[in-house]
Structures are given as structure tokens and as C-alpha cells.
Design goal:
Number of strands: 18
Oligomer: single chain
Largest sheet: 7 strands, mixed
Structural class: alpha/beta
Number of domains: 3
Radius of gyration: 23 Å
CATH superfamily of the largest domain: FAD/NAD(P)-binding domain
Mean pLDDT: 91
Amino acid sequence: MTVAHRFDVVVIGGGHNGLVTAGLLAKRGFKVCVLEKRDVVGGAAITETPFGPDFKVTALSYVVSLLPPTIVKELELERHGYRVFPQHGYFAPAADGSSLQLHAEAKRRHTEVSRFSKADADALESWDAWLGSLAGVLGPLLTTVPPKLGSKAPGDLMEAASLAWRLRGLSVQQVGDVTRLMTSSVADVLEDWFEHPRVRGVMAVSGVIGTWAGPRSPGTAYVMAHHKLGDIGQGAPAGAWGFPEGGMGAVTQAMRKACEALGVVVKTNAPVNRVIVRDGRAVGVALENGDEFDGDTVVVTTHPQLAFLSLVERKELPGDFVQSLERWKSRSGTVKVNVAVDRLPEFTAKKGFDPEVHGGTIVLAESLDHLEGAFQDAVAGRAAQTPMADICIPSVFDTTLAPEGKHVISMFTQWVPSTWAKAPDRAQLDAYADRVIARVDAVAPGFTSSILHRQVLGPHEMERDYGLIGGNIFHGELSVAQLFHMRPAPGFADFRTPVRGLYQASSATHGGGGVTGIPALQVVKAIVDDR
């Protein structure tokens, strides 16, 4: 028997964007329901216990940055348990016993980098100033609704003109810099500024992390900038990253608590079967069990290929919109390796405990050539022989994650073949994880023997268990062809869709990618404006 429920807004997907959307709309007086397929909200930002109750692991998303302070304040997330420990710089050890440490403090960083290249140490100050100036441009663009470029409708022409007017203060040089950043490879940009392979390698990681692209692929310079725009909202500089107390699940649980305090109904174990459309307008959704949730407004926050190619009948959508989504690139070669250990790793290059090492990000990326070689391995259909790894140990600060003396370690690694999303190779995936662990052991002898438990999640597991098509953490590649007004389809980057009353706020929309909540801010504004 079909059971009907009535709401003003029905949100499909209980990830961070869905929860922020629901909370902000409820605060504006809407009666809102969130429908989540899994038994827990949070999407890819959840805390799990794959090793038993003693260890808490953030299986996928593992650090917070790009979440705007306005969301934290408006939803009062701190009152609901949101707390972030700032991350302390980067540490890049090598198997020869040397290491490069990028301290957060400029003077110490200069001294450290000078050991490798005095020219690079001097260039870092200018680099920071350059990125800072571009952040002043890209930051506002990240929160700008892209205009419908090419449309001749008066309103769309006004929007395009308005964007041009807001950017009128840019100099010719700044426009050129932004253009280069949006189209260049991170390798090309770094090679213009720095000379030492180790410096270039470490700094290139933020340009390729989570992407199906190597450092020499066009567009990776923007990915690097995208990761530098964050602010954890506690006086930290732009681009700072942090570890949330309780893991990433604590962030989304705080969001759920904020939503429920505002009257939002959050339903888990509620897989949606279809969006109900009548006369070209969304009027609700139907669950797989037949229950219906009626609403004048429906917001989808899942991957766009799931949202529009599975939940909406093709006859309700324009052919060119469907074609754009069928061609939407969502590849990934990412593998997340999580381990529980009985002691902290001790690095040959840095004996003993150092909060700036163990409490920072440990990077295994020797050079641009190393990174490009790892990517090209995957392009050729084999897992990288020398994987890249971005490693964090959040239990250094957060004692809630592991028993005393023990720790959980998150290793975000790349690349394996993107085809593994549909045709997994478990034996090769485990062999790849063995190589990742061996790389850590080479710079921190004894690491392998310290491992109590391990979890290996490849593109297939990310797609199957978390709804990340292709294993792509951005719901679609941040490539030149899929930025700004192209996310996720030309003419529909304004968080609306071809179906009236149906809106989108996934990470595939502009401003998404990472735990940003920016799509939620934008879709709420669109809904309120349309009302």
C-alpha cells in the first residue's frame, strides 16, 4: 500500500550538500524532508568502524577545508559538535633518508626549502602572494552562479553582463593569469616558478588529487587552485585544511542534528526509485517500497548520472541535456587505504614524534615525472608501480578515533585503471595496496609490522557503496571541459534543471568538489528566488 507524505521540499541524498540544503531551507520556513538510501547520512563523509568499535575510520573523505564559515555559523554546527583541528604543513620523506618539510610558517619553510634550492625558497614568497591575489578572483567566482553563455534571452544576457561588470577591476595581467590557471597543467605552472624536482613534486599533488589526470594534463592547475581556496573558519589562512574531531562523520552528523533541530525530517534506508513528474513539473518522489513523498520542490544531490539518467524518465528531459550527461566524464584512479596501527610510524629522516610531521600531511611524491609515470601506468591499464600517496594520521590530535597508543592512518593514493570501477580486479588492487604500504615502510621502517587492520577501497567500491560513479570524488572530473558553466551541462549550471521544480546541488555543480556546501548555498538561493 502506497503511503504519501507531504512536504514543501524533498531532498534526495543525505550527503553534506543535501543536509546543508535542508537545514538552510528549514531555517527559512520550509517544511523539508531528506531521503537517504543508506542507513547513515553523510555520503562519502562518514565515520565508520570497519575494524571493530575500538577504531573509527573516515573511509573516504578525510579532511575538511572548503566549507564556508557562513554555513558553520548559520546552522550553528559548533553547537552540534563541529570542531576542527588545523593540519600542520606537509612532510615529504624519501627512501634515501632525506625529507622536505613545508612548514606553515614562512620563515621556517624558507630555511627548509633552501636546503634543496635557495631560488625555490625565495620564489615561495612570491608564489604565495600570486596565489593570494588569484584567490581574490577565484574565490568569488567559486560562489558565483555561472551565466548561460550563448543564450540570447534578455535575463541571461543581463547575468553575463553582470559577471563581466563584477570582474571589471581585473587587470590585463590578472585576466591572463586566471586564463592560464584554468587551462594549464599544474606542471607547466610549477616549472615556471620552481626548479627542484622534490619541490615541484610535493606542490603538484594538490593539482592531481582525486583526478583522472596527471600533472602534465591541462586543467590541473585549476584543481590545485581549487584546493587552495578553503578556510576552515577558525582564523586559519585560506587554503588551510583540518581534521574534524570524530572524523568526517562528525561533520555530517552535526549537520543532521542541526537539520533536525530546525524541524527537518531525515529518513535513512529510503532509496528513491523515481522523481514524479507531471506536466513537466516535479511534484514529489517515489521510494523503492512504493511510498511517495509529495513536494512542490525536489532537490537532487546525488551524482548527476544517477539523478537524471536513472531517477527521471528520459521523455521529461531535452535530448541535448541527456546527451551531455551521458558524455559526462567521471573517471578516477583513486584508491583509499585505511589502516589501524599499534604505534606511530617513525621516519628515517625524522626520528621520534613530531606533531608537525605526524599531525600534518605526509606526501609520497618525489617529482613531476614520478607522478606522471604513475598516471601513465593507469592509462595503460595497469596499477601504478610507484603510487602517489597523501597520508594523514588524524588520531594524533583526536583521541576519540583509536585506543591509547594506537592510531588510524588514512592514505589517499593514485592511480589504478579507471576501468576498475566497472570491472574490478581485487587481486591487483590488493597488490597495489601492498606497494603503497611498502613505500611507507621504505621511509618509516617497521611500518608494515605495525599494521593491525587494513581497508582498501578502489573505484569499484566507491561507486558501489557510496554512489560515486567511476569512483570520482567530485561527482565528475574537474577538467577544462567540465568547469564553471559546463557543470554538469551547458545551460543548466544555475542549479536548476529542465524540469520545473526540480533542482540540483551535487558536487558536480559549480562550487562543488570537496566538502564545500557551496552548491547547497546556491540552490537555496535559487529556490527562494523562484518562490
